[in-house]
Amino acid sequence: MSRLRMVCLLLALTVGSGCGSGVTSSVEDLPAGADVSPADTLASDFRVPPSDLSDRFSAGEGVLPDSSRIPPGFGNPCASNADCESGLCVEVGEGESVCTIPCVEECPKDWLCKGIETPPDWTFICVPPGGNACKPCDADSDCLYKGDLCLPVGASGTFCALDCAGGEPCPEHYTCADVPLESGTARQCLPDTGSCICSFGIDGAAEACSVTNELGKCFGERFCNGAAGWSECNAKTPAAETCDGTDEDCDGQVDEGLQPTACSKSNENGECLGTLTCDGPNGWVCDAPTPLPEDCDGLDNDCDGIADDGLGDQPELCDGVDNDCDGLVDEGFKDTDFDKTADCADPDDDDDLDPDESDCSPLDPLVHAGAVEECDGIDNNCDYFADEGCPASGLALQQVQAAGTVKSKNIALTVTFEAVAGGRVQGSDLVLELGW
User: Fold this and answer.
1) Nearest-CA neighbor of 399 among 434, 360, 428?
2) I need a labelling partner for 293 at 20 to 30 A (CA). Which of 111, 172, 241, 343 fits?
3) Quick check: pTM over 0.85?
């Protein structure tokens, strides 16, 4: 029996009309010897929302034409081929299938006439548009329908593309594009986002994710990035707690379970013991003191268990330190002002508030800068003049002018003088002792 007669017979039995009823139009697209008899089951993931499809079938609109062109049983729910008058039950969604019909070229409304391999031949049936689009696959045969290819789409694996070489319309958000093959070029409907994972509507979206292991569970996000597909989860990998001020195992606690241990600090002076504790971002911290040379301070500076050991036999020096560790400082050394600070370490030995370095008589409390000048032959105020302003007694030198005139309260004479060693001015018959 010819291919055309077989198709017409099958349609007459299932549709109740002859060839040319609008269900078939030609046989040129069928391979020689092709068989339109259905297999026991025809199932494929068409990605058609089940609830939407049921509503459209029950209403008799949207997918199907007017009732005069709808074959009996077309679109009725089914569980197997035996439930359909046509003997063709096709899966249209997760756990949902409907009856369809065989075809040669045309199908009701926007359904497509696609060939499905039923060895040793092919069966052509009406399927919803976009049925196989982006179905995961390993080979072309997984895509079920003739002309649909299993292709790498994006970076997330291989998926079924839809044949559009004959001008078939692509589903919404898909574009018919050239696909280079070893044997030439195919035309296939591919997703506009470049990804079957990050398809229209979720491209650019984010979702919560987590990373779990035996140490804990950490949460994060991953992002749908077009052809790249879903990104890796940005949650950190749970790890054992370390002393760093962070929550490595993601249990909401920081540095928990880290127990203090003994520690020490040592150098040439000795070894001091302490406790090593976790100080968060500062890490592990040892609180042992640093060993120091023994000092006369009542402390065990070198951590040998003895305070001030080895210091009692040291000689006392005049240096402001208790060298012999007897509780006294610079004992046995002169203390002019009895202020318990020996002169060797006292910056003001006579306690006259004029430091030794500027005091012209550092051991005499009556002589210092700012003191009242007394008529006693002493330079009391450290201005390098003695008894200035006091009444004359004998010959008192008040001022020496550059011209060589010497004036006093009761005498004025002109002398010729010159400076000689020892601060003396020598005249013709007069020798004066000067105060500089």
Assistant:
1) 434
2) 343
3) no
